[in-house]
Amino acid sequence: MILTMDEIVNAICLHTAERKQIRPTDVQVELSWDEETGYSAEVWAQGRSQYLVESNMIEAILRYLYSEYNIRAYREQVTLDLDEEITAHVDVEVEQAY
C-alpha cells in the first residue's frame, strides 16, 4: 500500500489536531527532505510552528492507517520514500487487515 503526499499531510493534520484538540483544518503542514536531517514536516497550529522528525511522521501515519483504513501496522512496516514527491510505503496486505 502506498500513501500519497496528500495522505501523509492529512495524517499529520489529523494527528496534530487530535493532540492539540483543534480542528484539522486549523493545521498546516509542509513536508521536506534534506540529506543531513532526512524527512521532516513543519507544522503550523495555533499560531506556532513545530518540526516533526521522521519517527513523529510515521506515528501520525500509523494512526491514520488505523482510523481511516482500519489497518494496524507497525513502525517497521512503514517507510518514507522520495521520488517526484514524498510517499509512504506500507508493507501490509490490505485484504488481511480487518
Structural summary, described in words:
- Helix content is 33%, strand content 35%.
- With 98 residues, the chain is of the alpha+beta class.
- The protein has one domain (2-96).
- α1 packs across α2.
- The longest helix is centred in the first third of the chain and has 16 residues, at 5-20.
- The chain is globular, with a radius of gyration of 13 Å.
Blueprint of the fold:
Blueprint: E1 2-3, H1 5-20, E2 27-34, E3 38-45, E4 48-53, H2 54-69, E5 78-82, E6 86-90
Antiparallel strand pairs: 1-6, 2-3, 3-4, 5-6
Helix pairs in contact: 1-2
- Average pLDDT taken over every residue: 93
Oligomer: single chain
Major sheet details: 3 strands, antiparallel
Contiguous uncertain segments of 5+ residues: none
Radius of gyration: 13 Å
Spell the H/E element sequence: EHEEEHEE
Strand content: 25-35%
Alpha-beta classification: alpha+beta
Total domains, how many? 1
InterPro entries: Uncharacterised_YxcD
Protein name: DUF2653 domain-containing protein
Organism: Paenibacillus rhizosphaerae
Concise description?
It contains two helices and six strands; from the N terminus they run E-H-E-E-E-H-E-E. It is α+β, with helices and mostly antiparallel strands and 98 residues long.
Characteristics of this structure?
98 residues; alpha+beta; three-stranded antiparallel sheet
